[in-house]
Automatic annotation (TrEMBL):
<keyword id="KW-0170">Cobalt</keyword>
<dbReference type="InterPro" id="IPR036264">
    <property type="entry name" value="Bact_exopeptidase_dim_dom"/>
</dbReference>
<comment type="similarity">
    <text>Belongs to the peptidase M20A family.</text>
</comment>
<dbReference type="InterPro" id="IPR011650">
    <property type="entry name" value="Peptidase_M20_dimer"/>
</dbReference>
<keyword id="KW-0378">Hydrolase</keyword>
<protein>
    <recommendedName>
        <fullName>Probable succinyl-diaminopimelate desuccinylase</fullName>
        <ecNumber>3.5.1.18</ecNumber>
    </recommendedName>
</protein>
<keyword id="KW-0862">Zinc</keyword>
<dbReference type="GO" id="GO:0009089">
    <property type="term" value="P:lysine biosynthetic process via diaminopimelate"/>
</dbReference>
<dbReference type="InterPro" id="IPR010182">
    <property type="entry name" value="ArgE/DapE"/>
</dbReference>
<feature type="domain" description="Peptidase M20 dimerisation">
    <location>
        <begin position="190"/>
        <end position="318"/>
    </location>
</feature>
<dbReference type="InterPro" id="IPR002933">
    <property type="entry name" value="Peptidase_M20"/>
</dbReference>
<keyword id="KW-0479">Metal-binding</keyword>
<dbReference type="Pfam" id="PF07687">
    <property type="entry name" value="M20_dimer"/>
</dbReference>
<dbReference type="Pfam" id="PF01546">
    <property type="entry name" value="Peptidase_M20"/>
</dbReference>
<comment type="pathway">
    <text>Amino-acid biosynthesis; L-lysine biosynthesis via DAP pathway; LL-2,6-diaminopimelate from (S)-tetrahydrodipicolinate (succinylase route): step 3/3.</text>
</comment>
<dbReference type="InterPro" id="IPR001261">
    <property type="entry name" value="ArgE/DapE_CS"/>
</dbReference>
<dbReference type="GO" id="GO:0009014">
    <property type="term" value="F:succinyl-diaminopimelate desuccinylase activity"/>
</dbReference>
Length: 424
């Protein structure tokens, strides 16, 4: 019978003694550009496969779209519990290199920080799960279950070629999943708001600009009326289900104590947020515009579905007497969560507290992620990863060395606890 606590202490010592290897792995991943778009993961996928193969892993490649590679590698046995550790290789574009204080794909380690695009989102976490699983294998541990690494290429654009492809084709499955997405050091994400992205095209009647508003019909003016109705979604009262009220309360505490956000920000947990992200219309100033198109990102709280939001918007827009067409694109899904007492949540939260010596608890995320796909396939999931949150998707992105080290420890210890636990 394995003494789990003795084993976990051994793992901590091994990770500390191999710290430099972990740092170099993270730096190496950052030095490989993997911006999405365009979404070419060839180089970074080959590097990761080479790293894993040197320790005896079989790595399977899946290419649902040209140059977008999913990597799947496992360790353990099919009997017993099955844990998925997931991460994505793609990063958002670096943007103007002259606005960075260092080369965007530097990977340099300086003053306790690892520097470069993707350091926090999410090559710090990606290096942590790869390192943790490879270390467990190198220690020749006989696991009572199995760990699967699922490394995907298509998260930053919300695409279908990563996690959705693997799940829908039955390539991966599990009793629990940990995604190494950026999070607060003590607060893994156990739930997300829903998302409803849509494009609204408003139609008018062209004419000479000198005769407006007498002649024709101005599509931009009608679109402005529509936008006003769309923005009223923020004021729509949403009944919060009782089952999520305790998690919302903890998340408000987190927003106040950790994020230092005032009560105004806390409202986003229980309301529909509305961002009119793009608008385009007309041909020139002296022509009455025939059409105008706006793209909108709404994030949905628990208590309402994207179907209900669409129905509400159609009623409101129909009442304006305008001609329009509404179609969805990108993210679409309802708010979702994993109960904090689920075994995978307990294993991760317990070991965050163990490694840090501080209280840890799960919170809701006011954005969306690949976690929704796992929950749609009835796989309990949460997110936890190293990050300097203010730098994500911005210039001068970085991650603290000690955060990467801490998360790698949590990944390895949580995997041990989860797999050796008898509860399913």
């Amino acid at each position: 019978m394995t003494d789990v606590e003795v084993l976990k202490r051994r793992i901590i010592r091994e990770i500390d003694s191999r710290k430099q290897e972990l740092i170099e792995l993270c730096s190496s991943l950052i030095r490989i550009p993997s911006e999405n778009p365009p979404g070419d993961s060839t180089e970074i996928s080959r590097f990761i496969a080479g790293y894993l193969k040197q320790f005896g892993f079989q790595v399977d490649f899946y290419e649902p779209k040209e140059r977008m590679y999913n990597l799947v590698a496992g360790y353990g046995r099919d009997e017993g519990k099955h844990l998925i550790l997931c991460g994505h290789t793609d990063v958002v574009p670096a943007g103007d290199p002259f606005k960075w204080n260092f080369p965007p794909f530097s990977g340099e380690v300086k003053d306790g920080w690892i520097l470069g695009r993707g350091a926090s989102d999410m090559k710090g976490g990606l290096s942590g799960i790869i390192f943790a699983v490879s270390l467990l294998k190198r220690l020749n541990l006989e696991l009572p279950g199995k760990i699967t690494l699922a490394i995907v290429p298509d998260e930053e654009t919300g695409g279908k070629y990563g996690v959705p492809f693997l799940l829908e084709n039955g390539i991966i499955h599990g009793d629990g999943c940990l995604i190494a997405e950026p999070s607060s050091p003590l607060n893994p994400t156990i739930g997300q708001k829903g998302a409803f992205w849509f494009k609204l095209t408003v139609f008018g009647e062209p004419g000479h600009g000198s005769l407006s508003p007498v002649a024709g019909r101005n599509a931009i003016a009608d679109a402005i009326k529509a936008i006003a109705k769309i923005q009223e979604l923020w004021e729509l009262p949403i009944p919060v289900p009782d089952e999520v009220k305790p998690i919302i309360a903890r998340t408000k505490r987190y927003m106040k104590e950790v994020e230092k956000l005032d009560e105004n920000y806390q409202k986003v947990l229980e309301r529909i947020t509305v961002n009119v992200g793009t608008i385009s219309g007309g041909t020139k100033s002296n022509v009455i515009p025939e059409s105008c198109t706006v793209e909108v990102d709404c994030r949905l709280p628990f208590g309402i579905t994207h179907e209900k939001v669409a129905e509400h918007l159609h009623r409101e827009l129909d009442g304006l007497g305008i001609r329009y067409q509404m179609e969805t694109f990108g993210f679409r899904g309802n708010a979702n969560f994993t109960p904090p007492d689920d075994p995978v949540c307990r294993a991760v939260i317990r070991n965050i507290s163990s490694v840090t010596g501080e209280e840890a608890y799960g919170v809701l995320q006011w954005a969306s992620s690949d976690a929704r796909h796992f929950r749609a396939h009835r796989i309990p999931v949460l997110q936890y990863g190293p990050a300097h949150l203010p730098s994500i998707h911005g210039y001068n992105e970085k991650v603290a060395v000690e955060d990467v080290l801490r998360c790698a420890k949590v990944y390895a210890l949580a995997a041990i606890d989860f797999l050796f636990s008898s509860s399913r």
